[in-house]
Design a protein that fits this description.
Elements: E1 7-11, H1 16-27, E2 31-36, H2 39-48, E3 53-57, H3 63-77, E4 82-85, H4 100-128, E5 131-136, H5 149-169, E6 174-181, E7 184-185, E8 202-203, H6 204-215, E9 225-228
Parallel strand pairs: 1-2, 1-4, 2-3, 4-5, 5-6, 6-9, 7-8
Length: 235
């Protein structure tokens, strides 16, 4: 399916996987409405988008901000075809070291944010009888590890949210895809992008290519789950 003039909203688009995905989708003809909290980074992304990327700064956990993102997409392009819930970050500590503030903040972005943006777009998707909701989770939506209680809890929550959502919206012709990635060489990890230890991990561009593949399937095809790892990562 061609992405020419399809409208795609993507959160967490100011850097990392989100930024790479926004640029690749725009290069393939999509109109991309990119949102994140960092307005300066978003504006730089918009400048690189050759007129195909519209930046709307906002907090993904804010109902007001995400409604503004949806309204911008509808006002500028008349419809929404895909929503990519990509915003998220990690805190990796033992349970007794995690503060309540850290718990609340991470859950607000990773879990509440997925709900808020999806909810804002759903009425329009239902009314048009089509659409695609993508949630960029992690392979830790299906496993746990010591020091990962907070992050894995957020990803398990996204997994459960997707499972219920998928059953609700399929009768409306709306697709739901969960993306479960392994290790990605990005700013997300404590040693930062491009470190020697992560040279054989997935690249941000690999994830962007995966997203392009997922959202460009024919209308009758839905990829319910997409799991991808670097070869060196045990699975």
């Amino acid at each position: 399916m061609s992405l020419e003039n399809k409208t795609i909203i993507i959160s967490g688009a100011s850097r990392g996987i989100g930024r790479a995905t926004a640029l690749l989708l725009a290069r393939n003809g999509a109109n991309v409405v990119a949102t994140a909290r960092n307005a300066d980074d978003l504006n730089q992304l918009e400048n690189e988008g050759d007129g195909k990327i519209v930046a709307v700064a906002g907090d993904v956990a804010s109902e007001t901000d995400m409604q503004a993102v949806v309204n911008t997409a509808l006002d500028r392009f008349g419809r929404i075809d895909v929503v990519i819930n990509n915003a998220g970050y990690g805190v990796f500590k033992n349970v007794d070291e995690i503060t309540v503030e850290e718990w609340d903040a991470l859950m607000a972005t990773n879990v509440k944010g997925t709900f808020v943006l999806t909810k804002a777009a759903l009425p329009n998707l239902k009314a048009q009888g089509s659409g695609h909701i993508v949630v960029v989770a992690s392979d830790v939506a299906k496993r746990t590890f010591a020091g990962g209680s907070l992050y894995t809890a957020s990803k398990y929550a996204q997994e459960a949210f997707m499972g219920a959502l998928r059953k609700e919206v399929r009768p409306f012709g709306i697709k739901v895809t969960g993306v479960y990635s392994g290790l990605v060489d990005s700013h997300f990890h404590d040693k930062g992008h491009g470190h020697e230890t992560s040279k054989n991990w997935l690249k941000e561009e690999d994830m962007a290519e995966s997203m392009l593949f997922i959202v460009s399937r024919p209308a009758h095809v839905v990829i319910d789950e997409f799991m991808v790892h670097p070869l060196e990562q045990e699975y």
